[in-house]
Design goal:
The chain is of the alpha/beta class and 369 residues long. The protein has two domains: 219 residues, Isopropylmalate Dehydrogenase (3-Layer(aba) Sandwich); 120 residues, Rossmann fold, CATH 3.40.50.2300. It has twelve helices and twelve strands. The strands form two sheets. It has a ten-stranded mixed β-sheet, with helices on both faces. The protein has a two-stranded antiparallel sheet with strand order 6-7. Helix 8 packs parallel to helix 9 and helix 10 packs antiparallel against helix 11. It starts with 5 loop residues before the first strand and ends with a helix. 47% of the residues are buried. The mean pLDDT is 95. The chain binds 3-isopropylmalic acid and magnesium ion. The site of 3-isopropylmalic acid has 4 residues, from helix 4.
Length: 369
């Protein structure tokens, strides 16, 4: 039995609300069928929040996010908001959640489902069976470093951002990566640019120290992030856990996502320190964006968001078996040939709608009982 499992749902913009509707079907299944009931509330984030409140994240929503056991977010952003001042752009809402909840460890698994190995732009034997985990530092680095801004200098303007990492910021995300590796393939590859950046030199030094002091049993290697990008495309199965900074992690996780065939498949978990009830501060979201080009048409793939809920079951609610059940249900529908538009191969066929994919996954959950 679970107690006080509270969930704040922030559907956001674009395809966010559509994919979240399918997640709700899954959440609603777990109550009667598995006795897992959630105290669910819903609120606005991103452009949707701006339209209503003039800010991409209302203070009340921020406060609610701090109180619940887990936040589940759809996506933020859209061309309609391109004209807004930087400080109120939809993305600022998401970044505020990450920063104020101090969600420093962003887990982005890239797993290739057998049924989709043909959909990757890489050869099948390069990606079949792929199962890697990118741990991206999420609350520091160039995303948040000061000074930042666009300033006047002489007769022109200068854009400034600062890459900044403290030892403790590197230390804690390294520990997350080593802890995860112990539950998987026991291998960590740390990526930075120690050849050109002082922050990279410190990153490498701290990761190595944490390893030598507390995780000598885990196999550790270091790679420059550019070489890492190349190796990810060449032979991704050499990796188990990759730990890297905020910006490199943003880039490398999009690349890793595409190895698996579609960005519509990949979930993520952003975790912080444990709360007083022992559960980590947590936000779960698909890696994909708001996809404004297909929003509102029932074309979106809800799997990344549904798998994000599976990660919530595992990392927030200690329901690893139920998470595995949900992941297996996704695998079953894919093996049965269920395909949303993003998963249509070159030989065509008729894609199924967002809602039909959600229904198929719920049916597979039923069949798992
Ligand atoms: C991501 C996204 C975000 C990021 C944007 C939407 C702010 O690309 O989660 O990967 O850059 O972190
Ligand atoms: Mg990104």
């Amino acid at each position: 039995m679970m107690t006080n499992a509270s969930l704040l749902i922030l559907p956001g913009d674009g395809i966010g609300p559509e994919v979240m509707t399918e997640v709700r079907k899954v959440i609603d299944w777990y109550g009667p069928k598995r006795g897992l009931t959630f105290d669910v509330s819903e609120d606005l984030v991103g452009g949707a929040a701006y339209d209503t409140h003039g800010t991409p994240l209302h203070d009340d929503t921020m406060a609610k996010a701090q109180e619940v056991d887990a936040v589940l977010l759809g996506a933020v952003g859209g061309p309609k908001y391109d004209v807004l001042d930087f400080s109120v752009k939809p993305e600022r809402g998401l970044l505020r959640l990450r920063k104020e909840m101090d969600l420093f460890a962003n887990l982005r698994p890239a797993q290739c489902f057998d049924a989709l190995a043909d959909f990757s732009s890489l050869k099948k034997d390069v990606v079949a069976g792929l199962d890697i985990m990118i741990v991206r530092e999420l609350t520091s680095g160039i995303y948040f470093g000061e000074p930042r801004g666009i300033i006047e200098e002489g007769n022109e303007r200068v854009g400034i951002n600062t890459q900044r990492y403290t030892e403790s910021e590197i230390d804690r995300v390294a520990r997350s990566a080593f802890d995860l590796a112990r539950k998987r393939g026991n291998k960590v590859c740390s990526m930075e640019k120690a050849n050109v950046m002082e922050s990279g030199i410190l990153w490498r030094e701290v990761v190595q120290r944490v390893h030598d002091e507390d995780y000598p049993d885990v196999e550790l290697s270091h790679m420059y992030a550019d070489a890492g990008a190349m190796q990810l495309c060449r032979w991704p199965k050499q990796f188990d856990v990759i730990v890297t900074d905020n910006l490199f992690g943003d880039l490398l996780s999009d690349a890793a996502a595409m190895l698996t065939g579609s960005l519509g498949m990949l979930p993520s978990a952003s975790l912080g320190a444990p709360m007083s009830n022992g559960r980590p501060k947590a936000l779960y979201e698909p890696v994909h964006g708001s996809a404004p080009d297909i929003a509102g048409q029932g074309k979106a793939n809800p799997i990344a968001c549904i798998l994000s809920f599976a990660m919530a079951l595992r990392y927030s609610f200690d329901q690893g078996e139920e998470a595995t059940r949900l992941e297996a249900a996704v695998e079953t529908v894919l093996a049965d040939g269920a395909r949303t538009a993003d998963l249509m191969g070159p030989d065509g066929g008729t894609p199924m709608s967002t809602a039909k994919m959600g229904d198929a996954i719920v049916a597979a959950l039923d069949a798992s009982l």
